[in-house]
Amino acid sequence: MHKTIVDKKVSRRTFFKHTAGAAAGAVAATALLPGLKETGKLIADTVKVNIDNDTLTMHNDLQRALEKPIEQRKWAMVIDIRKCIGCHGCTVACVAENNLPPGVTYRTVPEVETGEYPEVQRIFMPTNCMQCEKAPCIEAANKIAKGSMSRRADGIVVIDYKKMKGKKVFEAASKACPYPKSLWYDEGKNYTDGTPMVQPYEKRKAKEYGIEWSRADLKGTTRKCHFCTQRIDAGVLPACVTTCTGQAMYFGDLNDSESLASKLLKKNKSARMNLASGAEPAVHYLDDDPEQTCMVCHS
Ligand code: SF4
Ligand code: SF4
């Protein structure tokens, strides 16, 4: 579990005063000056913080997975709803990472109320495409536009933007998908349409699936979460995972029993949404009692 320096009851001023001394190479002085002992402990704890840091662990898990052949990786997203604070930071990170236009939000964070007064609670359920093992969207889309959707050897469900064009194929895939708000239609709009100038940040190319796409390329396509393939293939964790304020989001390889994602699923109660659909989603939710929260809507 991630620990923070704030817990150490050392003021920011004291920290900088003492670390400045340490930076001058005063390792021996740490033993001589009582005030610096605290600094030494603080630095040691800081190093420990880095070693314990979940993000670093997931990063190392990712590097390990990338050393294996792609078909031996089984990516999963694990979301701890006890830690989600509903800040929508993941949504914003996703929009920025994938240069998403108006009307397209790969990641949503619905708020759900459960229970009856006075035993009520509100939970946040970060949601995106579930990268289903038996994804019904693929067959439905390919009936309309051959080769428009497929599943990579590591399980990520991908879209060929050159082939998945038009509302007909979007509607077919959406109808087949058991999870609402997984697929989005790109109307080709920009946030700054109708202003004196469409801003450069909106015209920049989206780098999804390892290719650069202009706004013109993407107009009329179906879009969805792809576990940030452009990042994970390069050894970088998904944008929503690294941005999560509550550290509620995890990502890793379930074929690796030592990955943090695997360990979290082993240690905690978890649930996957709408298993009755048979789609076998790759997004897992952690909670103390999923039957009373997640499963209230998704049994
Ligand atoms: S969540 Fe929907 S769009 Fe995503 S893979 Fe599953 S069926 Fe397809
Ligand atoms: S994995 Fe990437 S594409 Fe998917 S919701 Fe997170 S940021 Fe968006």
Strand order of the largest sheet: 8-1-10-9
Q: Give a short account of the largest sheet.
A: 4 strands, mixed
Amino-to-carboxy terminus distance: 30 Å
Class based on secondary structure composition and strand pairing: alpha+beta
**SSE order, one letter for each helix or strand:** HHHHEHEEHEEHEHHEHHEHEEH
Tell me the CATH architecture of the largest domain.
Answer: 2-Layer Sandwich
The global form is: globular
Small molecules held by this entry: iron/sulfur cluster
The tally of beta strands, per DSSP, is 10
The CATH topology of the largest domain, please?
Answer: Alpha-Beta Plaits
The value of Rg in angstroms is 23 Å
β-sheet strand percentage: 5-15%
Number of domains: 2
Indicate the topology.
Layout: H1 12-23, H2 27-32, H3 34-52, H4 54-66, E1 75-80, H5 89-98, E2 111-116, E3 119-124, H6 136-144, E4 149-151, E5 157-159, H7 167-176, E6 184-185, H8 200-203, H9 215-218, E7 222-223, H10 229-232, H11 239-243, E8 249-253, H12 260-267, E9 270-271, E10 283-286, H13 294-298
Parallel strand pairs: 1-10
Antiparallel strand pairs: 1-8, 2-3, 4-5, 6-7, 9-10
Bound molecules: iron/sulfur cluster (SF4) (2 copies).
